[in-house]
Amino acid sequence: MTKKPLRIALFTGLYAPFLTGVSVAVHQRVRWLLEQGHEVFLIHPQINDRYPKNVGDRPMPGLNEIQSFSNFSAYAFPTQPLLFYKSLPQPLNYRYWSDTKLLEKFQPDIIIVEEAAQMRGLYSFFLQGYGRPIGTEYARKTGTPTISLFHTDIVAYIKYYFGDKFFNLVRPIIPALVKQFSESYDFNYFSSKEQLTKYEELKCQRAEYVPYQGIDCEKFHPRNISYNPIPNDNRPTLLFVGRITPEKNVNQLLDIFPLIAAKIPDVHLVIVGSGPLDEEIRQRAEKFGSGITVWGESHGTELLGWFARADVFVNPSITENFCTTNNEALASGTPLVAVIAPSTSEQVSPGRNGFLAQPNNPTDFAQKVIAILENPDLKADMTRNARPSILEFDWSACMQKLEEKLYQIVEEGRSSKSSSQGRVNRTQVN
User: Fold this and answer.
1) Inter-helix orientation angle 324-331/376-386, to 10°
2) 373-426 residue pLDDT tens
C-alpha cells in the first residue's frame, strides 16, 4: 500500500542565494521530498539590501527551480547579516515574525529544523538569532513531532570566532547549553557517527545517527572531465572548494603548498570559493605566482569540471561534519587528503581513496599529498576506488532513510494521540 504523502514544515537558517553546504543540501532535500509527492512548506532566510550585492546575484538552484511544484509553498523570514560573517543571514528576533502562526496556518504532520542552532542564535552566542527554539511552541500545543538536523560543529565554530580565551571561559557551561538546546526537540539527527559521539559527550539529548546528508552521485561523476576549466593545463592539480573562512583553515593550504612544490615543482593549487578571508588569501598567494590560482566562486558545469579535473582534493578544515565537498570530490573520482576531523574517517579509507593527515600539521599533510602525486600506481588505485567508496551516500539512498524515519515518527505520534484519546473517552464513559 502506498503511504500517504506527509505535510512537512521545514525551517532552515541557510538557503539560496546564501552559499554554504547547508543551503545546497536543504535545496536538494526539499526538491527530493517534493518529487516524492510530499507537501513542503519551506521557511527560509530573506535576502535584502543589507548583504553584499554579489550574494543575491549568485546563479544557484533555489526557489525558482521548485516554484512549479503545486505541493510547494514558502515564507521568507526577516534577517540581518550574521555578526561575524556579513555574507550569511541571521533571523530577526521572534518579535518580528512568528513561527507559531506560520505553523498554525499550515498544520504540518512533522516539523524539520535544519541547523536549529543557528536559528536559535548559538552561532553568535545569543548575540543574534530568533531567541527561542523554532517550532516547539506549536509542537507543545498540537503534539506535532519536531526534529532537528545537525550540520555544523557549533562548539568548534564558537572557538574559531570567539577565540581560545573566550572559549575556555565558557567551556564549563557548553554541555548545559547543548543539553537545553537539544531537549527542545523530539529527535536530534546527526549525519556523522563521530559528531554524534562528540555531542552525546556534551550532553546532547535524544540524539541519533541517520545518514541524511548525501550528494547527487549522478551529477558528480568522473565524466565531468569534459567540462575541464583548464583543458590546456596539464600540471598536477590540487583543489579546494569551500568558504574562505577561518574555520575552514584555508590559510594553512598556503603553508602546505611550498612543502609540496619543493618535491613537485609544477604542482598547481586551485582555491575555489569566497568569504571574509578572500583578500588575505589572494595577497598571500601572490608570492607563488602561477603556482596558486584563487579562482573565486564557481557554479554549474564549471564546478563539476573542477572536481573531475583535480588530481587530489585537499581539505585542511578540522570542523567538518560529513563534508559535502569531500563526498563530491570522491564521487567525481578524485582522491582526497583531509585532516582528521569529525566524520572524515567515515569518508576516507587511508590508502584506498585518500589519506588522513594530522590536524594543523602542514608537514604531515604535504607528505600525504606528495605520496599520491609521486606514485602513479597508488594514484590510479585511489582514483578507481574513490567513486565506489561514496556511492552508499547517494542522495536518493540517504533521503529514503530519512523519509522512513519521518513516517515512523509521524505514525508513532498518531498512535500515541489515539491511545491518549482512547483513555480520555473511557474515563468519560466510566
Assistant:
1) 110
2) 999 999 999 999 999 999 999 999 999 999 999 999 999 977 766 555 544 444
Q: Which of 316, 345, 310, 350 is CA-nearest to residue 331?
A: 310
C-alpha cell at 117: 542552532
Q: What is d(CA 148, CA 190) in angstroms, rounded to the nearest whole number?
A: 9
pLDDT in tens, 212-232: 999 999 999 999 999 999 999
Which candidate, 356, 349, 355, 350, places its Cα nearest to that of 392?
349
- Whether 378 contacts 353, CB under 8 Å: no
Other CB atoms within 10 Å distance of the CB of residue 309: 20
**DSSP letter assigned to residue 394:** B
Coil vs helix vs strand at 379: helix
CB atoms inside a 10 Å sphere around CB 63: 16
Cβ contacts of 275 within 8 Å, gap of 6 or more: 85, 87, 243, 244, 245, 248
Sequence-ordered strand ranges (E) for 115-211:
146-150, 187-190, 207-209
Cis peptide before 17 (omega within 30 of 0): yes
Q: How confident is the model at residue 122 (pLDDT cuts 50, 70, 90)?
A: confident
